Each structure stands twice: as C-alpha cells, then as structure tokens.
Amino acid sequence: MSNRKILVIYTGGTIGMIMDPASKALVPFEFEHIHEQLPMLHLIEAEVTFQSLLPLIDSSDTNPDFWVRLARMVKNEYDNYDGFVILHGTDTMAYTASAMSFLLENLAKPVILTGSQLPLGVIRTDGRRNILNAIAIAAEYYINNTPLVQEVCIYFQNNLYRGNRTYKDNASRFNAFYSPNYPILAEVNTHVEYHRSNLFRPKLDEQLCFHTRMDDNVAIVKIYPGIRNEFLESVFNTKGLRAVVMETFGVGNAPTNPAFINILRQAVERDIIIVNVTQCKGGGGVEMGRYLTGKHLADAGVISGYDMTTEAAVTKVMYLLGQDVTLEEVKKYIGYPLRGELTRE
Ligand code: ASP
C-alpha cells in the first residue's frame, strides 16, 4: 500500500442509497458500512478515510452556503490528505465543481467529484466503478511527489473532466456529463490515459487561498423567441439584483427590438452586470461582434462570457461579487480565465 491518504467526503445523492429489503424503496445507507458496498476498496493503493458532510442532501438543495461549507472541509483537511474525492448527487454536480474551483484558489491537490446514476446498492450500479476510479486517480502522484491532478474535476463513466467545463447532459445514460469546450483530462480504459497537457497547473509557490464569500444576488435568464419585455423587466427590477447570466442564441445573439435593448442598457446603468453565454450546449462560445444582433448587446454594456458554461458563469459571478473588488474589476475578471474555465483566443 502506498502512503497516499485520500479523504472521501460524502454529501448525499443517489450514490449513497440502497434498496430497503422490506419496502423495496431506495433509502440512504449508513456510510460506516461503505466497505460492504465496495469490497474491492482494499485493493486500491491508498489509505482511504470517509467523512460525511451533514446533513446529507439531494444535490437539488445545494447553494452557495453548502459550497462554502464543502470547500471549508477540504481546506481544513488540506494538509492531512494527498487528495479528495467528493461523493455528490449528479443533478447539480457541475455547479458545485465550478463553485469549488473558484473558492479554492491555488489548489495544488486533486479534488474529484463523482456520483452515480444508479445507487451503490443496486446490481447495475455505476457508483462502484466511479468511486474506485476517482480514488485511484486522486492517489496518482509523480515520482517527485507532485499530484498528477491539481484542480477540481468531475470523474464520471471512464472520463475525468475539468469540473468548471462540464454540465450534466443526460438524465438516464451512465455517460451523464459533457465538456463541450475543453478536452477530457484522462480516460479510463484498460489503462488510465492522462492527457497531461490538458491538466491545469496552479501558480508555483502560491499557498491555497480559501474564499468564504459568494453573493447569490445573481439570476439566470434564458432568451427565447417571443420573450416578453415585462418578464425581463421584472427580473431586472428584482430588489438587490447584482448580475444576470443571460443565455442567448448561437454566438451571443438576442432580439434587437429597442425596448428589449433599453431594458438591458438601463440595467447596466444601474450597475447590474449582464454576462452573455450561449444556449448552444454542444460547444462554441460568444462572439458579440459577429452579427449585428450581438453587437447591440455589446453596445448596451453586456459582457461576454466567452465559452463558459452557464454553471461556470453563474458561480464565477457569485464568487467575484463576494470578493472585495470593484465593479470594474469584477467585469474584467469575468472574461479572464481564473481556473481554466474559459478559453480566449
Ligand atoms: N437527485 C439526485 C441528486 O442529484 C440525483 C443523483 O444523485 O444522481 O442528488
């Protein structure tokens, strides 16, 4: 057994469920009995410890407080472990992975989120392989004692993804996650193949910096043909609102009617940040100068989110607004890759 110490943090979700023999319903199982569900665990060359973040939740109940508590747990144990695996519901795993990437600045150890589409306690579960492979990857170190992975990732169904580049794109397939604008970091087949040039590297000699504040006065608005200006107005007039992540068409296009553009312009004048991300889920990003429809948005003061996922954009804005920086700095950093979450030519 190697001396790599891995902390597995269980937060809830489908993965931690078994079939109750009496009722045949799925119920959460006691994590002290995890070894019964993972009989192969002892074969992994690492010393694995399990802890739960209580109360356990369905990931539909995640929120910025939960993200800060989870990041704090990693931070508190950072020096005691070589890597971290977080067991999390799949529904909002991409939001949590994105948020964690921003909260844990200069992370230099692996933090790998995983979960499953079927509970651990059912025969066809994908959970067993996901957990075992995530732990094995978290325990991979170079000979010079540097971890192979030094970022927040999602491991799911044979693929290791950069967490803040993914979204859940399938509700029933085992292959539930997709990273439209960034290649996978590793692939597990008969061998684990790392795509090393894709791995994020923190700044050398910088200490982990744990951020504790996120501002949730951020809304997501999806533009659709026929969207009524009254609806938009009511969102933009929400008390306390500080930013809107706006999902637009194609490379960042939206209706051109003057009333619509005016709502956006007035919001920007009231210091509400509007970030433009694309609705296209398969890839590509925002280029507001390409069509006149996008140029109207840029002229109104809308900021490009480039090729960020909605999950990355909304958690990034929550994170930036929680920091002690000026509005101009927040606007600048939105379009600047902080944790590898966007690509700029
Ligand atoms: N609703 C569950 C959750 O996200 C689904 C899952 O774990 O896959 O917590």
Question: What would you say this structure looks like, in words?
Answer:
By secondary structure, this protein is α/β, with parallel strands linked by helices. The chain has two domains: 4-210, 3-Layer(aba) Sandwich (Rossmann fold); 218-334, Rossmann fold. The protein is 26% helix and 22% strand. It contains nine helices and 18 strands. The chain has helices spanning 34-37, 64-77, 93-103, 127-138, 229-236, 258-269, 292-300, 310-321, 327-334, and strands at 5-12, 17-19, 26-28, 47-57, 83-87, 104-105, 111-114, 152-156, 159-162, 167-168, 177-178, 186-188, 192-194, 209-210, 218-222, 243-248, 273-278, 303-304. Strands 4-1-5-7-8-9-12-13 form an eight-stranded mixed β-sheet, with helices on both faces. Helix 6 (258-269) links the parallel strand 16 (243-248) and strand 17. Helix 5 packs parallel to helix 6. The protein starts with a strand and ends in an 11-residue tail after the last helix. The relative contact order is 0.12. Aspartic acid binds at residues 12-14, 58-60, 89-91, 115, 117. Residues 12-14, 58-60, 89-91, 115, 117 line the site of aspartic acid.
